[in-house]
Design a protein that fits this description.
6 strands, Rossmann fold, 8% strand, 17 helices, globular, alpha/beta, 381 residues, 6-stranded parallel β-sheet, binds 5,6-dimethylbenzimidazole, binds nicotinate mononucleotide
């Protein structure tokens, strides 16, 4: 039985501050000037906190979950593309021809496509996980996009897919999505969860021109006013009112990953909007999320602030699918491997003859404070 949304929230425990501190201390004693691996050290310490152990395991089986759905708000003219492109891109991803497949092959990640609500007349194609809740959301500018039940069902579908992957050995979850019109829903979620003005978090999505982007801002504004007029509401109501079925499914992926103490890499503005909803539902989830890249879409630029750390990459990507998150996978693996594989300064002191410059190394490593011992975790012995 898939847990309820409340049970999923309940299963998320805080990350482990002790493992974090141990990793920080270990970093200080590794064979490098302290702090010289910069943000890779920050990430390594966070991975230890996520795994509740130091050193953290080196992720070897990353899996990307691409959640797909369509959007009723498309009727407002907020996208340059027909809705059929969503189903077409789902078929492309499952057949291996999308950008995300090229990157997944490069970084050795499994790709799982989950249809939670695309518009289609027939069955979903072979190879696509069929978790359709309904055929597209309602128009969020005029009414709640989902009922609470539909929203819960999509969250639980995402959690179920993630839990099955984790049972099968996945040790790093990567989030992705496809959904024509979903940058409008994402902008609405960013505005609702951060208090930002719609003009500051709404962009051209998949190449909308300037005039129609201004109209898109108005649509987001209308949706927020409608939602506000409906009265005070919690995170689930906000997600159901303004989000998409793929946002909800990705919330489920994030909750399940956090519950299993597995890092979850966030992609662009769409998965970022899902991350805001997940953190609003279960604040401890934030500790398990890694911002993979900064999307060029304006909302995406705000995500790192909300997660409390800069994204790992900024390559001006604005495609979605999970492309930027997947590109960050080797960084996550390297950050963990540094903590498991590197020699310590103490090891180096014991074997100075293996390093160049007779006497120079001894002198150089005499300068840093020696390991205090006891607290730092051990990597290779
Ligand atoms: O994730 C992002 O940062 C991102 C930024 C711009 C566009 N997208 C993708 O473009 C599609 C939505 O664009 P639009 O203009 O139809 O809202 C959807 O399939 C997303 O995957 C995604
Ligand atoms: C072609 C295309 C590919 C995509 N991949 C993710 N969103 C997309 C939107 C479009 C339009």
């Amino acid at each position: 039985m898939t847990p309820t949304v409340e049970e999923l929230v309940e299963q998320v425990r805080p990350v482990d501050r002790t493992a974090y501190a141990q990793a920080r201390e270990r970093h200080a004693g590794l064979a490098k000037p302290p702090g010289s691996l910069g943000r890779l050290e920050d990430l390594g310490a966070r991975l230890a906190a996520i795994a509740h152990r130091c050193p953290p395991p080196v992720p070897s089986s990353p899996a990307l979950v691409v959640a797909a759905a369509d959007h009723g708000v498309h009727a407002q003219g907020v996208s340059d593309w027909p809705q059929e492109v969503t189903a077409a891109m789902v078929a492309t991803v499952v057949s291996g021809g999308a950008a995300v497949n090229a990157i997944a092959r490069t970084v050795g990640a499994q790709v799982v496509v989950v249809d939670v609500g695309t518009l289609r007349l027939g069955p979903v194609p072979d190879g696509v996980r069929d978790e359709r809740v309904r055929s597209a959301t309602r128009d969020l500018a005029v009414e709640p996009a989902m009922t609470l039940d539909e929203c819960r069902t999509a969250i639980r579908a995402g959690a179920r897919v993630a839990a099955e992957l984790i049972d099968g050995g996945t040790d790093l979850l990567v989030t992705g999505e496809v959904g024509i019109g979903n940058t409008t829903a994402s902008a609405a979620l960013f505005a609702a969860f951060t208090g930002a003005d719609p003009a500051d978090v709404t962009g051209k999505g998949a190449n909308l021109d300037d005039g129609r982007t201004a109209h898109k801002v108005d649509v987001v504004r209308t949706a927020l006013a409608r939602h506000a007029a409906a009265g005070r509401s919690g995170p689930l109501e906000t997600l159901a009112s303004l989000g998409g079925l793929e946002h909800a499914a990705l919330v489920g992926v994030m909750l399940a990953g956090a519950a299993a103490r597995i890092p979850v890499v966030v992609d662009g503005v769409v998965t970022g909007a899902a991350a805001l909803a997940a953190v609003a539902l279960a604040p401890e989830v934030a500790g398990y999320l890694v911002a993979g890249h900064t999307s060029a879409e304006p909302g995406g630029r705000r995500l790192p602030d909300r997660l409390g750390e800069p994204a790992l990459l900024d390559l001006s990507l604005r495609l979605g699918e999970g492309t930027g998150a997947l590109l960050a996978v080797p960084l996550v693996q390297a950050a963990a491997r540094v903590l498991t594989d590197m020699a310590t300064l103490a090891d180096v002191t014991r074997a100075p003859s293996t390093l160049p410059g007779p006497g120079a190394v001894d002198a150089a490593i005499a300068a840093p404070a020696p390991l205090r011992g006891g607290e730092a975790c051990r990597g290779r012995s």
